[in-house]
Amino acid sequence: MAMKPPTNIWIRRQQCPCGDWKCYIKYEGDDQASTSSQQEKTETTSSLLSSEVVFTPYVGQIFKSDDEAFEYYSNFARKNGFSIRKARSTESQNLGIYRRDFVCYRSGFNQPRKKANVEHPRDRKSVRCGCDAKLYLTKEIVDGVTQWYVSQFSNVHNHELLEDDQVRMLPAYRKIQEADQERILLLSKAGFPVNRIVKVLELEKGVQPGQLPFIEKDVRNFVRTCKKTVQENDALLTEKRENDTLELLEACKNMAERDVDFVYDYTTDENEKVENIAWSFGDSIRAYTLFGDVVTFDTSYRSITYGLLLGVWFGMDNHGKAIFFGCVLLQDESTHSFAWALQTFVRFMRGRHPQTILTDIDLGLRDSIARELPNTKHVVCIWHILSKLSSWFSSLLGSQYEEFKAEFDMLCRLESVEDFEHQWNHFVARFGLVSDKHVALLFSYRAFWLFSYIRGYFLARMMTVEFSQSVDTFFKKILSEQTCLQVFFEQVCAAAFGNSTREGVQYVHIKTCMPIEEHARSILTPYAFRVLQHEIVLSTQYATTEMTNGSYLVRHYKKMDGEYLVIWIPEDEQIHCSCKEFEHSGILCRHSLRVLVVKNYFQLPEKYLLLRWRLENSLVTMEGPNPQSSSDECAQAFHSLAAALLTESMISKERFSYVHKELTGLLDHVRNMPETNEFVVNMPAHNASD
């Protein structure tokens, strides 16, 4: 057990931010899958054992091997309230071992041993009572094939047989599965005493005390047996970590020689061993100058091989894609380590602080951000909270969990702080969670994650599902198994620049024909324009009421949502909406757009077309001198052809059927054509009426 891991394995951080040593987070689909599959395998074996009929062995019964016979007899013994052990074996020069004796665990008598020269020797009572239950095997070779047959069998016991809940506690059936062994060693290494380790395992598995498939004595013996091996492995891992971090440092030095804009830094301990190391690329620093207004610092993963915490800084470009800003490996999760990471990142980015930083719930990280980035808004990403809800509340609430999750989602969307705090108290009381530690944790952090608190913070749409998926894609690229940290460094390099390709033409149809829509399409990236276009389309469903002070009340024509106050300042073309969508995402909301239309605006004021969302601000160039103009030419040509085709095909049923069939085949053919980044418009003059 506890062999040296051959690869660098990354897992999600499991320690719960509530600070309770007994509490850790389970993430669906992560490394828990291996544990659950092992559990399922164990449970399946156990259920098969309880349901499968094991017939009584008999003289002459044949087995392919002695191991098969032992397993069969062991299953029979467990079903009948006893266990077995291997006794005598007989060997010859020609046949090797040709006889095996399996006996009841209470067979024979304990032979008196010479007592050790100690003051108080232990006087253990033997369970052996001379039981005669046995199964003897003999090997024979028939037609060149080796087989074993039962030569003697007795099922007569001179002791009481045990019930099922008792027989499982016999030493022969008390097994510590591999997943449990790893957990025991981890807790033991962290300094947990054996009785607390057992308690932790009971809590994690949700079983009553004494219902584990092993007892405290087994855990103690296992830890004692593995102690030497663990120490040897620790020494090997320490050596591997030291060698690999030096190789990583050398890789950073080599990269700095090839790329003058590449930056890295590291710290060492009192023995001059590398503790923490961080790096960033020149392209990342340049991207930060454009899109460093909002940063995500993701610390979800750690290496169980090296004991290092992984932190990655991300931003979002104007095409809605995650961009890599920097990476750090920390030896621990202390406030001091996080502070060094933040200081180093700001130094890499030439002293520029982000407006907003998004993180997970972490007390040490929260304190470090407050100290190192005092003017930066700190937000806890809602996706990190949602990923923990199941681990915190599903077992506790049982069948009520789905209802709890739906109500929690509704509370997250409330726009008023007062409404949230009033409804929160009723919410936790209804589900009996008033004294729950995780509910208390969420409430204490409410100013960091609740929409009603952070709606005025600029987040650049970095809490959308699409951005979360983009970050997950990056991690999948870099968190595959590696043999060393140098390979990890190379994978980060490849993933960081994997999206640095030229953008193909993305044609976005005009939906309203409003001048402000056409104007915005010529300036914004397709991603930003689609978001704004959605708001423009919805703005047509809103009515405005002008107030005496020049402000406007804007409400949906069906009054499906509440009314919003839009303040219009004509002197310097300022517009402010109570929904604060522009402050939140940098995209004007439907309410403000409605007022601008009422004010006869045919173009949006320049200040409301943020530079971070503009096409001209892209990290990569678009194909062609004017891709949108080329797309418009194609669209007009297709519209002309489609209109003529529709008119002609509606003359008869035969024409319609023919056109439908041909177009379906043409569409399938086009979809199967290879994609290319090149887009050349060379449309021949064509008259649809010809």
UniProtKB/TrEMBL annotation:
Domain SWIM-type: 564-600
Keyword presence, Zinc: yes
InterPro entries hit by this protein: FAR1_DNA_bnd_dom (IPR004330), FHY3/FAR1 (IPR031052), HTH_FAR1-11-like (IPR058778), MULE_transposase_dom (IPR018289), Znf_PMZ (IPR006564), Znf_SWIM (IPR007527)
Natural source organism: Citrus sinensis
UniProtKB keywords: Metal-binding, Nucleus, Zinc, Zinc-finger
Family note: Belongs to the FHY3/FAR1 family.
PANTHER family per record: PROTEIN FAR1-RELATED SEQUENCE 10-RELATED (PTHR31669:SF174)
Protein function: Putative transcription activator involved in regulating light control of development.
GO MF annotation terms: zinc ion binding
GO biological process: regulation of DNA-templated transcription
Protein name according to UniProt: Protein FAR1-RELATED SEQUENCE
Subcellular localization: Nucleus
Main location class: nucleus
A cellular-component GO term for this protein: nucleus
